[in-house]
Amino acid sequence: MSDISTFVKRGHNDHEAINKLQALITPIAFPEPEESSQKERVILSSPVRLRTNTSSTGTDITTTTTHTRDRFSNSYTVIPDTSTKTAYPVSNTTTGTLTYPSTSIIKGGAGTEFTGSQYITIPDNSALESDLPIGIMFTFKSNGTEGALAVYCKKDESTSTNAGVYVELLRNSVADFNGSNFDTGDFNSTTQDSAVRVHVSDGSNEVDATITTATDLFDGNTHTVVINIANTNPDFDSGDFDNDDFYIANSPKTVEVFVDKVSEGTADTSSITGSLTNARDAYFGGRDNGSGVDSKLQGYVALFEIQNTTFSTSQINAYHDDDRIYVNKQLNALHFAGSEDPSILDDMW
């Protein structure tokens, strides 16, 4: 506003001229606040910075020491579909130790590395599971280990038709010996291209779909993965008669896998007519084999979400391109945002 003061001091004290000048400057200096309807929930937004400090010792300034310090935090956005949240109903348990160095950050400032010795147990609770539709999304980066790597399991896999859902990543580039004796089970007799396996069952009928991905999930780059499992039956879904309380036209009835925003393929799910719910605990990073946990995850993961609806194309693009998570009918989330505590939801949307 010093320009106005100078303008007045020079004798240009015409009020109309001054008002015009103020009308031009004020919107720039004092912009209107953002409308509340456009506000989003930004999680700890600040950039990753590597600061180098150099100091000198001695009178001739010939000896120097250099110190580096990593400063990083999370920068992703959660956009809930409601302003009402509920308390997370259980206490998850982490087996093994998860660490959060800067090298594990792969998405939105979040991420951790699973090395085959960690998994998270999510106690059974009706608020954390659902029948179809189900949408699952997460970010993955390989640490060089191939195999059958469990991502999420809410299903006793000891019997294939047990009700529930199981998701794993697959790749076996070399058919080779992998054991300590000569049993046939110690050989990977065939190779397996990069793929996402989705196994769902209603207790009687099952769909076990292995969808090969054109993008190699194990190439050492960061990839976003989205799995949409569409509802299979037109049915009533609420306590009143609003139009959106019915699943009337969820066709085609498929499981569809997206990698880096691109659809990698579908599998028919029309045979699933019953409920997927069960009394088993859920696991992130491991497979429930009926008596224990195997197929433990190896690789970097971040921003895992599972919800009782499928993700739209625009939501998939926003997640991949802008680190934005659109939350709708949330069932669970593990974001791995800097320590084990933020990996567990305090509230649900």
Would you mind describing this structure in some detail?
The structure is a single chain. With 349 residues, the protein is mainly beta. The protein has helices at residues 2-9, 15-29, 313-322; strands spanning 41-43, 49-57, 63-71, 76-80, 86-87, 93-95, 112-115, 119-122, 134-141, 147-154, 164-172, 192-201, 206-212, 222-229, 235-236, 246-247, 254-259, 262-268, 282-284, 287-288, 293-294, 298-307, 324-327, 330-334, 347-348. The strands form 7 sheets. Strands 6-8-19-10-11-12-13 form a 7-stranded antiparallel sheet, with no helix packed on it. β20 and β21 form a beta hairpin. The radius of gyration is 26 Å and the shape is globular. It starts with a helix and ends with a strand.
Number of helices: 3
Spatial sequence of strands, sheet with the most strands: 6-8-19-10-11-12-13
Oligomer: single chain
Molecular shape? globular
- Uncertain runs are 34-39, 43-57, 63-72
| Helicity, as a percent range | under 10%
Structural class: mainly beta
Kindly, what is the distance between the CA atoms of the first and last residues, rounded to a whole number of angstroms? 46 Å
Core attributes:
single chain; 349 residues; mainly beta; seven-stranded antiparallel β-sheet; 3 helices; 38% strand; globular
